[in-house]
Amino acid sequence: MRPKTLLELAGVAATPSPLSAAALIVIDAQREYLDGKLPLVGITPALAEIARMLARARKTGTPVIHIQHRGRPGSAFGPDTAGYPIVEAAAPAPGETVIQKGLPNAFAGTDLKARLDQLGRKDFVLTGFMTQMCVEATARAAIDLGLKATVVAACTATRDLPDPLTGKVVTAAEVHRNALAAMADRFAVIVPDTAAIAD
User: pTM of the predicted model, to two decimals?
Assistant: First the structure.
């Protein structure tokens, strides 16, 4: 028998938010993940998919918010390092909001919630990196704030990780899939790609 998510058991339909009712959030699309200290598996196609989503959002007038992780100087994502800038494919357009964060959850210590309140948006479409880190942390926080997250799987990516129990490699594909499954259980609507998001 196919297992059910907690959302399914509660009778909640996993309907993705359309761009007309949401804000688009792009998390940490920074060079650190492209060619820096933390290169991700599959980041090039993920960035191309983010670029497609950005183009659609801009065409439909959907508010776009960019999240930029700010690490300690000299470290990963340090503002003085080559890994800090947002990559060209996902670069903010003039007038788009950029919020700097220091923790995985993009709501922690930032004014992201206030920005969404000002826009009158309780729904957001979530893209960016890494799937099991900042994307998942932000999606999980949304439920506590009365917000609805839709995560676009093809707009996210991650890296291989060590299994803490065996020391063996957990592939990026496994980490990515497991993070999406965990979010889909209760915290977010998961869709495969940008085509699954209506205008």
Answer: 0.97
